[in-house]
Task: structure prediction
Amino acid sequence: MKIMKIAVTTATTAALALGLAACSSSEPAKSADPTAGASAAGPKFAGETLTMWRLGDSNPAAQKYTDALVAAFEQQTGAKVKVEWIPWPQVNDKFTAAAAGGAGPDVTEIGNDQVPLWQSQDALHPITPIVGTGDQAQIPKNLFGLETIDNEIYAVPWGAGSRAVLYRKDWFADLGIEIPKTWDEVVAAAKKIQAEKGKDVDGFAFNGGSDANHLLAALAWSEGGEYALKEGDKWVGKLTEPAFKNGFTTYTGLVTEGLSGKSRLTQNTVDIRRRFANDKVGMYLTAGWDLPGIEEDSKGKLKGDKLGFFALPAKAGGATPSFFGGNDIAVWNDAKNKELATEFVKLATNKEWATRYATEGGLLPVYPDALAKLSEDPAQAPFAEAFAKAKALPADPNWTEAGETKAVLQNAARSVIEGKAGIDEALAKANGELEAILNQQ
Result:
């Protein structure tokens, strides 16, 4: 997964994907005291400066939240906070340089699936005591699967992400299509869209790009499949087992059955979003953070009244498990004052500030009671339903190499779709490649 981008909270986003303006129950209670719930570090940090990295380009919603959090922390500690926004194309290079001993942050936002990688580079400082007491003890333990390494916790979940199917609500209404409850109904809806809108339109867009495994994983997990499991100290690939093969067949079938164009095998979510905004896609798997981009790409033509979300159905019924993505916050190992940096993480991840971070940023809150409130909102329900079954990809620092850099599964799918290999042959080859990458030292 690429580290999640925080969406601009437009009125359209709020009404459709986030439900913020229309669903007051999703708003966290505001404290009269902005430092409520935080540990009191006292004035001993007066005169010190802490550097925080936020990832992506600032937008009004993210900036407003960050300013408020910083103000509360500065009032609490007497320290000053310098916030640096790291544009997405620069994130990997900045982290790499900082891990090598360059100018790094004291605290950083970080994608949850990036924690094993940077921990393996000794870039993150363990902050296990934070989650043992206070609000953070209420965060479900299963959300720390990627953050817990050798019994130490290296980051705290800040906001979670799940995916659902974004669809053209106006097209469904015009064509008399009901929201699909089964995979067969998804296929039927996609074919009907293509019959009316043209074969160049993807009824359900195939994702074969850098984030392809978000779609493939959902389909494979829904069949009971796994990518790889740790057996002793070794990763053992499971790509050739029947359950994974079934999900992989459904995934490649989006193209082989003609629901998505064969000429677009390498498109990722951003590519699909742009086609969706230009009336070339009926459905695809994504999340609420795509909505501002769609509105911009469509020059304002596609807004909330024309769009909707539903949970991706499994073949056997019910929602597929969603990829458990999310953003964490961590203390950098070279932080000048680790105690001060830890205090910042403690404040940012208490119930009030973590819930605000999520709901104001287009993510799901990590606190159970706040998440439960979102389930009551029709606009949020598909994401909450998917998140209830959320799973993570193999928690190994080499996963990014397998899933993105070397695109092991993407290449396997492409070889099948292009007729260069059968499914069994392609998955056997991919299984060997996956094991070799995950087990390398």
Notes: The longest strand covers residues 325-332. The longest helix spans residues 60-77. Residues 11-162+324-387 form a domain with the D-Maltodextrin-Binding Protein; domain 2 fold (CATH 3.40.190.10).
